[in-house]
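not sure who needs this but someone in the group chat was asking about Phosphonate ABC transporter ATP-binding protein from Kiloniella litopenaei so here u go. i didnt clean anything up, its just raw.
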Amino acid sequence: MLHLNKLTKQYATGDMALKGVEVEIPKGQVVALIGPSGAGKSTLIRCINRLVEPTSGSVTLNGKELTKLGSGALRQARRRMGMIFQEYALVERLTVMENVLSGRLGYVGFWRSFFRKYPQSDVDEAFRLLERVGLDHMADKRADELSGGQRQRVGIARALIQDPELLLVDEPTASLDPKTSRQIMRLICELCAERNLAAIINIHDVALAQMFVQRVIGLRFGEVVYDGPPDQLKPETLTEIYGEEDWEATIETVDEDEDEEAAQGAVA
């Protein structure tokens, strides 16, 4: 269980990025975080693992209050929070396998990681994860030889090898084409279901979020203005989150896409 209690972030400029956010996310639930640019979505994710320090309020993960931890305890807590980045954050000159194993850096000593002397159990798990994300045949390829979708799959495997209790996902599909975006969102949701893993996905594509997640949280000016199921995101709600626009087209697109996928599944 992740609990955000009156979480606030005020920057040195005086800007309030988060204004007393109250959210609970149970184990196994995948949540999409939506809202316009500047709404506080990325700040919220980074306040959870304290890459950004909250101004006030608390973050509690499975009974441990992260906002009270010192530097050493915070490093240990971050082991259990997998992060998936928009720009992949891979080391280009390293292989796919080496990038995945870098997710174990918090668990092995400096010299073992420096010389890439990981325990065999970690190597075996890396191979299992690469097979699960469809990249077992690319283990020895350099990261700079991969497509965007393949890089994101490496990032997913790297996050999961941490054996996390929570996934924090920042714009995982922003640089991907529509088909690859669906594949990546589907993969993340499937893996969370398999592992009973909670996830927060910061995403701009409302239709994609509606298609895959169990719950949507809408932020506007650092405040939660919607928290509920994706099928209840009505035009008036999207207007409250983003502002005036013809939102009927977005909702109709989602319905048509779901019908099309259902039909294809029936044929298969």
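also The beta strands are 2-10, 16-25, 30-34, 56-61, 64-65, 81-84, 166-170, 198-202, 215-220, 223-228. if thats useful
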